[in-house]
Structure formats: structure tokens, C-alpha cells
């Protein structure tokens, strides 16, 4: 606890690793901490409480967390009253093993225990013991809790938790549990409240949003999207992530006829050969995926398609990889998130034979990125001279005189700052398209 201006203050520092769902969970945790008197800080040395919300999808994410845990040990030695906790997917996976490895950790909370944070922090503050809670949570997480939004104009809203797909490379179903959908009225109520507080854009989150509602059968994802699109004051509606096996023609039509639903679909294919897709347990073929993309582009000619790709999955041959490159040339994504396959203990792929050597993984990744970067550049070059609607985010990372924002198709745009403010919708004429960004000049705003 620090004294400033004659008043006592308690500060909390949250470190977040991993996906958008982890960011959303952290906003809910920070909201809870504010209800018991903690203020956010950017300085770990100032913090009375440090919380790491973790990811374990890739080994590199775990390595970064362990490095940070070691760093915080020194802070704890200087300030024994500091409360230090681990939450998220790595907490769920490792449980008590984290405290055995690093006894300076005070508590470990699993992925279904976000709503227990304030209780646990108060218990630690009073008794200074260890708490580990990674048991499966309730079927439905409590609604209506506080949320400390990091961005008031563009917000994350989870619509479901967990995953039922059990792809052979993925740890998510084991650490986040089976799919549980929020009730549609609860999702819409959260969106309404976010808009009341100034939100212009909402992104609906789930490991596989297309299977929303299969458990409670109150509404499917297309129904929910239509409800959110109708919220007064909303300007843009986004969603992620989509599993190709569940993206319906009804959903495509809902996007086509929606007023505020953005023309961007993140559609992870993961690989471009049927043999590897079967080994990954992806439940679709290259032909299935190709046909789906055809239906999407027929209905949404301006759509931006992005994807995830994994290089070096066990058993990957040069022939498989050649099929992957040919598939990229055929589908022509606007951009792709590319990953080296990373072993995750507890997943079937970790035990598969024919693990690909690391050097070969890196060499293939470079080849893949060269192909995709060229396609991304060509896609962006086609936008030169176009005037696009951009939602202003704020100053760019490298130059305060240059501001950034995103198009409806989720393209990052840089432009000279004038009178625009975060949250404004402006029209930008694209003058200098590049591989990863578009640069332009504002022509109007509203």
C-alpha cells in the first residue's frame, strides 16, 4: 500500500499472455479488483498485487511466464506483503505444480474460477496461505460482474467458453473445458451496457463461435449475431473464431444482410492437405473448405478472409507442404497467422511419430511466409485509391503524429492526425498500401 497525496492506495499489475479470451478474462478480473480497492498500475515495483493471466497453447508462451515468475520472486523478497497469483490456461494445466516449483506464488486459479478472484485475494491478504483452485467450475459462470474495459470504443464480449473439438495438437479443451454458451439475453445486455458506456465496436468471442447455442438451444450464432446487430448505437460487430465445420449458410446470409456486421471472417484452416487435416482431427477436407470459401465470397464479394496455419505438424512431408503452398495460392487470404507446431503434453499429437526437426520447421515457415506475404501485398495494392471507413484507435506505436485505425475488413490503416479522436469513424483515401498496413489521408469524418 502506497501513500500519495495524503491518501492510501493499493495497486494491482495484471500481465496477460495469449488470446483475446485471456484479454477479456483479464478485464473481468481487473473489474473485480477495483471493487475491493485496487487501482491499476503499469509498474510492477509499485504493485501490491501482481497477477499473471497465462497461456499454454505454445511452449514459448509458457517459457515467457516462467521467466516472469522468476523476475517477480525478487520483488517478493523485497516486499513480502506483495500478493502474487497465476490464473488462466497454464494455471489450469499445472495447478499445484506451479507452487511446488515457485513457492513465492500465493495462489493459482483455473480458467473457470475468474469470478472467485476477489474472495481469494482477500483470503490471502488475511491469512497469507497458499490457495490452489483448478476444479471444474459451474456450468454457467455468474453474470453481471464488473468489467474494466481497456478500450472503451472497441470491446470484447465472450459468448461462450470451452471447446468440444479436441484437435490433436490443441490443449484448449483440456484447460477450458467443454462448450458452455451464455444466454443470448445476457450477451445482448452486456453489449447494450458497453454501447451505453461509449463502445462503437464489439467483438463476440468464443473458441468456436459457430457452435454457439448447441448446448442451451435458445439461439444459434446467426440468431445471436442478428440480435447484437440490432442494438441501438452499435456501429460495428465482429466475431472470432470460426471453425470451418460449423459455419452455416444461415450465418453467411446473416452477415450479408446485416447492417453493422463487418465483412471480415477469420477462418482457421490450419493446413492445406487432407492427410494432415485428418491427423489434426479437423473434421473437414480441403474440398469442403474450398466450397465454403466459394459460398462466402459469392455472398460477400468484399470480404476479408484471414486464417491460422501450422507448419511442422508430426508426419508433415515435403509433398504435404507443397500442397499447403498451392492451397495458399488458390485461396488467397488477406493475411495469415502462422505458427510452428509446438508439442503440448497431454495432447495426442505430442505422442505421434515422425516429429519434424526444428530446423526444417523454420525453413518451411519462411517459405510459407514468403508466399503469403506476396499475396497480402497484392490484396492491399488492389485497395490503392479506394476510400475506406476507418474506426480510429489512436496514435500509432512509433509516431504520435500518425494515427491508426481499422477498416470494416479489419485492415490496419495509418494516417496523419488531424482533429480525429479515438472512437471516431473517418473516411481515409488509401495512397500507399503495404504488406501489413495501409497508409492514407483522411477525407471526411462522422
From TrEMBL:
One of its GO terms (molecular function) is metal ion binding. Binds 2 [4Fe-4S] clusters. One cluster is coordinated with 3 cysteines and an exchangeable S-adenosyl-L-methionine. Residues 149-378 form the Radical SAM core domain. GO terms for cellular component: cytosol. Residues 10-126 form the MTTase N-terminal domain. Its cofactor is [4Fe-4S] cluster. Keywords: 4Fe-4S, Cytoplasm, Iron, Iron-sulfur, Metal-binding, S-adenosyl-L-methionine, Transferase, tRNA processing. It holds the Pfam family Radical_SAM. Its main location: cytoplasm. [4Fe-4S] cluster 1 binds at residues 19, 55, 89. Its EC number is 2.8.4.3. PROSITE patterns: MTTASE_N, MTTASE_RADICAL, RADICAL_SAM, TRAM. It catalyses: N(6)-dimethylallyladenosine(37) in tRNA + (sulfur carrier)-SH + AH2 + 2 S-adenosyl-L-methionine = 2-methylsulfanyl-N(6)-dimethylallyladenosine(37) in tRNA + (sulfur carrier)-H + 5'-deoxyadenosine + L-methionine + A + S-adenosyl-L-homocysteine + 2 H(+). Residues 381-444 form the TRAM domain. Catalyzes the methylthiolation of N6-(dimethylallyl)adenosine (i(6)A), leading to the formation of 2-methylthio-N6-(dimethylallyl)adenosine (ms(2)i(6)A) at position 37 in tRNAs that read codons beginning with uridine. HAMAP family: tRNA_metthiotr_MiaB. Monomer. Belongs to the methylthiotransferase family. MiaB subfamily. This is tRNA-2-methylthio-N(6)-dimethylallyladenosine synthase. It comes from Selenomonas bovis. The lineage of its organism: Bacteria, Bacillati, Bacillota, Negativicutes, Selenomonadales.
Amino acid at each position: 500500500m502506497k501513500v500519495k497525496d495524503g491518501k492510501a492506495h493499493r495497486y494491482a499489475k495484471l500481465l496477460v499472455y495469449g488470446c483475446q479470451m485471456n484479454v477479456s478474462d483479464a478485464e473481468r478480473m481487473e473489474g473485480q479488483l477495483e471493487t475491493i480497492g485496487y487501482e491499476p498500475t503499469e509498474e510492477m515495483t509499485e504493485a501490491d498485487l501482481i497477477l499473471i493471466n497465462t497461456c499454454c497453447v505454445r511452449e514459448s508462451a509458457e517459457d515467457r511466464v516462467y521467466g516472469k515468475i522468476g523476475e517477480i520472486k525478487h520483488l517478493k523478497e523485497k516486499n513480502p506483503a506483495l500478493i502474487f497469483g497465476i490464473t488462466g490456461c497454464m494455471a489450469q494445466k499445472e495447478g499445484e505444480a506451479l507452487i511446488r516449483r515457485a513457492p513465492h506464488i500465493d495462489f493459482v486459479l483455473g480458467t473457470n474460477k475468474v469470478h472467485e478472484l476477489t474472495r481469494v485475494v482477500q483470503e490471502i491478504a488475511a491469512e497469507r496461505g497458499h490457495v490452489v483452485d483448478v476444479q471444474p467450475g459451474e456450468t454457467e459462470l455468474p453474470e453481471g460482474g464488473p468489467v474494466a474495459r481497456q478500450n472503451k470504443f472497441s470491446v470484447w464480449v465472450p459468448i461462450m467458453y470451452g471447446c468440444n473439438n479436441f484437435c490433436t495438437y490443441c490443449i484448449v479443451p483440456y484447460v477450458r473445458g467443454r462448450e458452455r454458451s451464455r444466454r443470448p439475453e445476457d450477451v445482448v445486455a452486456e453489449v447494450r451496457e458497453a454501447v451505453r458506456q461509449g463502445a462503437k465496436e464489439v467483438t463476440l468471442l468464443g473458441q468456436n463461435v459457430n457452435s454457439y447455442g448447441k448446448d442451451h438451444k435458445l439461439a444459434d450464432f446467426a440468431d445471436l449475431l442478428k440480435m447484437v446487430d440490432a442494438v441501438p448505437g452499435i456501429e460495428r460487430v465482429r466475431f472470432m473464431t470460426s471453425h470451418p465445420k460449423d459455419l452455416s449458410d444461415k450465418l453467411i446470409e446473416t452477415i450479408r444482410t446485416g447492417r453493422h456486421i463487418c465483412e471480415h471472417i477469420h477462418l482457421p484452416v490450419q493446413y492445406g492437405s487432407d492427410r494432415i487435416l485428418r491427423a489434426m482431427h479437423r473434421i473437414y477436407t480441403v474440398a469442403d473448405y474450398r466450397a465454403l470459401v466459394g459460398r462466402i465470397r459469392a455472398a460477400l464479394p468484399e470480404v476479408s478472409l484471414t486464417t491460422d496455419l501450422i507448419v511442422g505438424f508430426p508426419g508433415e512431408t515435403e509433398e504435404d507442404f507443397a500442397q499447403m503452398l498451392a492451397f495458399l495460392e488458390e485461396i488467397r487470404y488477406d493475411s495469415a497467422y502462422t505458427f510452428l507446431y509446438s508439442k503440448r503434453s497431454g495432447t495426442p499429437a505430442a505422442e505421434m511419430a515422425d516429429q519434424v526437426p526444428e530446423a526444417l520447421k523454420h525453413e518451411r515457415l519462411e517459405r510459407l511466409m514468403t508466399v503469403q506475404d506476396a499475396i497480402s501485398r497484392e490484396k492491399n495494392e488492389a485497395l490503392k485509391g479506394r476510400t475506406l471507413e476507418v474506426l480510429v484507435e489512436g496514435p500509432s506505436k512509433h509516431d504520435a503524429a500518425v494515427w491508426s485505425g481499422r477498416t470494416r475488413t479489419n485492415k490496419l490503416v495509418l494516417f496523419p492526425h488531424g482533429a480525429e479522436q479515438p472512437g471516431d469513424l473517418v473516411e481515409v483515401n488509401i495512397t500507399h498500401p503495404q504488406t501489413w498496413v495501409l497508409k492514407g489521408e483522411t477525407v471526411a469524418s462522422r
